[in-house]
Amino acid sequence: MTTTPRILDGFRVIDCSIAMAGPFAAQRLGDLGADVIKVEPTAGEWQRFAAAGGAQGNRINVSFLSLNRNKRSLAVDLKSDEGRQVVRDLVATGDVFLQNYRPGVAARLGLDYETLREINPSIVYVSMSGYGEDGPYRDRPGQDLLLQAMSGAMLSTGRAGEPPVPAGQYLADAVTASTAFEAVLAALLHRERTGEGQLVTVNMLDALTTLQMQELSVHTVGGVPQQRGTQPNAHVYIRAPYGVFATADGYIALGFADLNVLGRVIGEPSFEGLDAEEHGWTHRDELYAKTAARLTARPSAEWLEVLLAAGIWAGPVYGYADLVDDPQIVHNGTFVEYDHPTEGHVKTPGFPYRFSRTPASIERGAPLVGEHTREILAELGRTPDDVEALFAHGAVAADETAAALQDARR
Length: 410
Fold this sequence. Notes:
Blueprint: E1 12-16, H1 21-31, E2 35-40, H2 62-67, E3 71-76, H3 81-92, E4 96-99, H4 105-109, H5 113-119, E5 124-129, H6 144-150, H7 171-194, E6 198-203, H8 204-211, H9 213-220, E7 243-246, E8 251-255, H10 259-266, H11 276-282, H12 284-295, H13 300-309, E9 313-316, H14 320-325, H15 327-332, E10 335-340, E11 344-349, H16 373-379, H17 384-392, E12 396-397, H18 400-409
Parallel strand pairs: 1-2, 1-4, 2-3, 4-5, 5-6
Antiparallel strand pairs: 3-12, 7-8, 8-9, 10-11
């Protein structure tokens, strides 16, 4: 483990979340040094068994592995009184409590904000939901695709009359995770200044809506309708030509070109004398179609060379295999590599931020189910007899492999 101090060293986060948004937010806190304790069922969180993309692992599938590094696992049965008491004991030692239970579940378990603030008044309690804590959509499923569809974002791209196309990422989950991460840091700063904890609520619908600050303001303030054209311009609120274009051997991305310069480079004389800020809107479909027709004549590398030399904004269209080996990605150290005790060598995206004095780091990979149950119970002051009683009653659990790993590390 690194001896370099990290920004959130000394803070404890109790992560009672599942799926992607909550675990991803908690992982970001762990990357900055927080002691993140993942509270999961004795059989393990369901994400351990639902591999994104069908990617399996040895003991931990890739989906869970990617969202739960820098955490310790406490496997506990929250349906039992003993299990809930363990979590309440943990809350007394914590700084942040994060959950994304379905509406009403936290209160039913006695893990709602009002209950936990009685145990720890300074706790920063983060409740994440799909649509909000209350309101007409309170009980709707907060699933990524459904939120993308409802947010309006899909109708800002593509052709009129054709089905909208979702983002190629779990966009609603990722944006909500970043929003929750940001909110936790702000609430902790407030607590450092005042000593006061508070309830923080984050929902996917608001996170994805406020992400579109500029686009929605063009609609609500500027009064410009969200209207797709007959050509697949990459955004309804950006002038043409703007998007991804086929070349002789692949694709390139191109945007915000001076039409006179672009016309000369691609050999399209009808662009001469056009003003990008005027005709880029009034002739959007025509400009897109003519650009697309010209760019099929040459390979991507040739087009990028001449377009960039002319000062036109253009770039390659990568797949993941291209991205991982890109020289700028390698230079930035965007991916990190480490060895996991059961999954072997891992290469995965690292950290989206850099700190000169308190860098983020990976101290441990994603844990096995209950890998740290005994360790955490000991920290809470439970005697060996108490611990064995909890195991005997099924209130807590630990994977046998996890226990062996813990013994090997002692």
